[in-house]
Amino acid sequence: MPAAPQAQAAPTYDRTAWLVDSAVAADLVAVGTPGANRSTLAIERIVCGEPDPKLGDATHVTTVGPRFADERGVWILTKTVAGYYATNPEAHPIAEAEWQSAAANLPHRAPDKLDEQIYNAQILHAYQSDGNLVDQDVTLESNGELYVQLSIRDVNRIGRRIGRDGLELVYHLPAKGSGFELRYDHGRLADFANYLDGVKDGLSQRIYPDTGRIREEVHYQRGVQHGVATSWTPSGAVEYRAVYDQGLTGKIVRFTGKKTGGATLYRLEDRVTYAAPNDVLGKIRAGMTVRELSALLQVDFSEDNGLWFPHLSCEWGLRIVLGAGRVKEVRRQPNGAFCNLHE
Hints:
Elements: H1 15-24, E1 28-34, E2 40-49, E3 60-64, E4 73-79, E5 84-86, H2 96-103, E6 115-119, E7 122-129, E8 132-140, E9 146-152, E10 156-163, E11 166-172, E12 178-185, E13 188-196, E14 199-207, E15 214-221, E16 224-225, E17 227-232, E18 238-245, E19 248-249, E20 252-253, E21 264-267, E22 272-275, H3 278-281, H4 290-297, E23 301-302, E24 307-309, E25 316-323, E26 326-334
Parallel strand pairs: 3-5
Antiparallel strand pairs: 1-2, 1-4, 2-3, 4-5, 6-7, 7-8, 8-9, 9-10, 10-11, 11-12, 12-13, 13-14, 14-15, 15-16, 15-17, 17-18, 18-19, 20-23, 21-22, 24-25, 25-26
């Protein structure tokens, strides 16, 4: 039995990129030494930023999180509701020369936040950077992990989740151009995806971190599955294989006539859904041929997978099951939506 192939080269996220992302999201950068219990940082010198008075002063600040080794050096700190969280590449300080090198390529950031709001464990604030308005979301999660997202309106979204074992998630999703998303499991790559103009495009893989073998491989085109998709068991056996054509797989029934109404096909990242007026849906009957259904709906669909209309009503959708060239079943089923009947 052939083994599953090894994971292909993932998008690059190196130490330099880590330092830049940490610096962009930093509230305080200081030379100092953590206290014995890792709950404070004795500051020798502030490199940039100002301590929040609620969390300390120019000599000591409250710290939180597992990423503080008892060593002197430069600490890149992001403010959370419980204290400053270190976002250095490791749980060790960096040398001042390395910090200076990273800081030289940073965008200009206005010194004052335009707005800051706190909701439980989440801090939301906005500031100007190189003429762009940036919204920053900082959340200290219950398991001690730090989640930070920066949204540069109409330009880019950058996010990271950092825990005891280091990086768990990072994404760069520019509105225009190439982007990526990487996920890690105990420091080992677990999956990645390539993006273009903010949506998945190209190769995406899920990986068995302990072996480096591929768990699942999917190709996308402009946010829709397109091409071969394959999954493998841990032992390397093929578990699933399908060929997608713009989100559809299996035997595809294509509408080639002139569209005058009917249904609308929505091609989403991991599925396709449909919408149609209720008078059109009311004409679908078990036993009608797929060609009759095609003429009625005037859209492409998979004869193998059928059709799903999620918005028949507030809480109900309509599932069309096909087989042997005909409509086998038309059934209502819950769509998982929550409806406020008092609105």
